[in-house]
Structure formats: C-alpha cells, structure tokens
Specification:
six-stranded mixed beta sheet; 447 residues; alpha/beta; Alpha-D-Glucose-1,6-Bisphosphate, Chain A, domain 3; TATA-Binding Protein; 18 strands
Length: 447
C-alpha cells in the first residue's frame, strides 16, 4: 500500500510542517495501541538527537504514549544504536528515536524499534498508519491506567560499556591520537568518553550542540573539518559520525577520506581471519562499488546486494545469516553486536585492526581501488519521471553500453523528491556519458 507517513527509515520531514505535534501525538497513541499487549505495565523508551525540534516532538510523543497507558522512559540525546540496544536491554515494549540522521537541523524524524531492538516491519508500520487516521478517542486509557514519564540516568555509561564490549577486552589505544567528530549530534558525549576510556588521546570536534548546528559543516557528510583537524593535530586517525551516530566515515593520517565500502572490506577480512564470519560474504546495497565486489571475490567471499537502505541490508542479513553488512555512506551493521547500524562500534572494529596490524590507517583502510563511479541527482516536482517512455529508452541504452563493463543504477530517494542516477565501470568517460544522458532525459520530464 502507498505510505502516507512512513518512508524507508521511519517518518521524516521538515519539523513543524511535515512532522507536527499532532502527527507525533497520533503516532504515539497509535504505536502505543499496537504494542500494548497483555496486562503488564507497558514501557516505551525514547531517545533523540540534539535538534531544537526534538523537544516538541518528544513531548507530543510522551502525551500520546501515556494517553493509551504506556509508561515512558526518556534518555535525552543518545545514538540511534544506543536506543535500539537499550530498548532490548531494559525490556521495553517499544523504542523510539527522534532524529533525521544526517539531515540539517530543520528536518526531523521518528524511528521505531520493537522489543527485540529491530526496526519495525512494513506490516506493523502499515497498521500504525491505519490507526493514525482513525478515531483514536475510543482507544484512550482509563484515568487510573494512564502512563507515567520519567528521565532515566546512567544510560550514557551503559552504551559506552556496550560499545567497548564489541572489541577485545585487552584492546588498548594508548599512544593513539584520535580526532572524533560527533556532528554536534547524539554521540557528542559518549564517543569521546569511550575513546578516552580505551586510552586514546582524544581531540573532539562537533561536540557543542546548540539545537541548530547538527551536521552543519561537520560529521560524516562533511568530513573536510575532520580532515583538516587530523592534519593539524598530526593524528593517527579521524572518525566522523552523523547526527544520530548510525553511520561513520574514517579519515586516515594523511587527511584522506575512507568510505564505507573500504570499511566493509577491512572488517570482513578481519572477521574472516579470526573465523568470525557467520557466512562467507557480506551484504551491501546496489550502490556499493564494483571494486568491493571484485575484491571480496578474490577472498572467496560473496557480495550480496540489496535495495538502498540499511533496513534492507539488515533484512537480508537476518534472512540468510550474514553478520557483516553496510552501505558506502558508512552505515555498517555488525549483527554480532547490534540490531542496527552503529557508526561508533564499526569505528572501534577498524581501530582494533589498525592496532593489531601496527600499520598506518592509510594502508589498513585501502583494500581495493574503487572503479570510477558517478552519481547525480535529479529533483522533480510531481509525477513519475521514470515511467516516461523516452526516459526508459535512454536507460535501456545506457545499460547496453555498460553491459559487461559496469553497472547503471537508478532509484528514487526514499526521503525526498529526487531520482539518483549512478553508474560505474572501468571506463570513466563511458560512465560519465551514460549518467549525463540519463540525467538529461530525466530533466526534460521532471520539471
């Protein structure tokens, strides 16, 4: 069915426009109705990042959940993977993360996690959507059954311990100089503290959130500031998280950015050497570079591709028993430790490999030469440009030109009215030509 509220990663949009207090209230009521099962006191755990609109959305959600009889545990700013972990650890019936991830401050979003710490299925989201547009007045709890809400302490320490347990207990980062960019987001307290506890000399940036500066010229989507700081401090490595810390980008000691495909290769090889791969392969999306696929094949490892979105990566991992997966953007999912992408835990895995190999990050994190890849976006105002006959013809022509020498991937964004056109192959000129032809055809019909 067509989605009215939920996209590929929860509900997301402009704060107080696409996401209003009324929508948050009705979401809280509807999700509460779905997850009130049995006679026990039901609990929902709510975390958020540092956006100004988080206060508004959180209070509306609290009102919605308590109105249908759910108690609410509020953590304050916490990474998305921490919310997923705490939902399961604290035996909550439901977990909620208020965040628009890597988007600017004036957007926000709401992600829901089940009691097992995993994102909700499409079926559950559809059920919640149906309730949101129904008469919820009949679902309200009796006065004596209303829920309570309270802030909970100590969750920061719990996540730090959880993250450290994802690496060997003997791992020491003594002598390592690490710059950590927390994007003025949800991990601004926990990530620097965890690195310090592991013995590193830590240089934190992006740790002064003011409600407006999340992801602004910092974090994993804008790593230039991190690269400059690494060079300035002569650091061994730079780590950039995004606003809710479910993705990571690494910068080597030379200030060069390392993308998620290289990190997947590093972690997969490390797990393979240690006998920790649950299946002989890695799950990634259609956007991962063909160079990664060829590299893994040389190690007798398979690359399983999914649709774009960490939820699809995770679904494939769970269905077929893989324990390593991710996206080029730095969403790395390590299911031995977490039920969702965890940028900081992924960074710790890389640090463990660097420490073990006693080689610089620039060597550790260069496992293959990526094939030339070109990605362009075409914004459209309405309609379905990909259904246009002329556009389809150009796409088919591009696929034939790349056949055997590369790939063409075209997909609509799940969070904004944009069509993403990506091609890769051994011949950069050919790749650019194919992308330009498709973009031109889309542009003609997208206005």
């Amino acid at each position: 069915m067509a989605r009215k509220y939920f996209g590929t990663d929860g509900i997301r949009g402009r704060a107080n426009s696409a996401i209003t207090p009324d929508i948050a209230l009705r979401l809280g009521m509807s999700a509460g109705v779905v997850f009130v099962r049995g006679d026990h006191r039901h609990r929902v755990l709510i975390g958020k990042d540092t956006r100004l609109s988080g206060y508004m959305i959180e209070n509306a959600l609290v009102a919605g959940f308590t109105s249908v009889g759910m108690d609410v545990l509020q953590t304050g700013p916490m990474p998305t993977p921490a919310v997923a972990m705490l939902t399961r650890s604290m035996r909550a019936d439901l977990g909620v993360m208020i965040s628009a991830s890597h988007n600017p401050y004036d957007d926000n979003g709401i992600k829901l996690f089940g009691p097992d710490g995993y994102k909700l299925s499409d079926e559950l989201e559809e059920e919640i959507e149906r309730l949101m547009d129904s008469d919820l007045g009949k679902r309200l709890a009796k006065p004596a059954a209303l829920g309570r809400a309270k802030r909970i302490d100590g969750v920061t320490d719990r996540y730090i311990e959880f993250a450290k347990r994802a690496v060997n207990r003997n791992l020491s980062l003594d002598g390592m100089r690490i710059v950590i960019d927390c994007a003025n987001g949800a991990a601004y307290k926990v990530a620097p503290a965890a690195l310090w506890e592991l013995g590193a000399e830590v240089f934190p940036i992006g740790v002064e959130p003011d409600g407006f500066n999340i992801n602004r010229d910092c974090g994993s989507t804008a790593p230039a500031a991190l690269a400059a700081k690494v060079r300035e401090m002569r650091a061994d490595i730079g780590i950039a998280l995004d606003g809710d810390a479910d993705r990571v980008v690494i910068v080597d000691e030379k200030g060069h950015v390392v993308d998620g495909d290289q990190l997947l290769a590093v972690i997969a090889e490390s797990f393979q050497e240690d006998g920790r791969l649950s299946q002989p392969g890695v799950v990634a999306t259609v956007m991962s570079n063909l160079g990664l696929e060829r590299h893994l094949a040389g190690l007798d490892l398979k690359l399983v591709r999914t649709l774009v979105g960490d939820r699809y990566v995770l679904e494939a991992m769970r269905a077929d028993g893989y324990n390593v997966g991710g996206e080029p953007s730095g969403h790395i999912i390590l299911s031995d430790f977490a039920t969702t992408g965890d940028g900081f835990v992924a960074a710790l895995q890389v640090l463990a490999v660097v420490r073990k190999s006693e080689r610089p990050v620039s060597e550790v994190c260069h496992r293959f030469d990526p094939l030339p890849q070109v990605l362009k976006n075409v914004r459209f105002s309405s309609g379905a440009p990909l259904e246009n006959a002329g556009v389809r013809s150009v796409i088919q022509s591009g696929e034939k030109r790349l056949s055997g020498r590369g790939r063409l991937v075209i997909r609509p964004s799940g969070t904004e009215p944009v069509i993403r056109v990506m091609a890769e192959g051994d011949d950069r000129d050919l790749v650019e030509s194919v992308v330009d032809d498709v973009v031109a055809a889309l542009t003609k019909v997208a206005a």
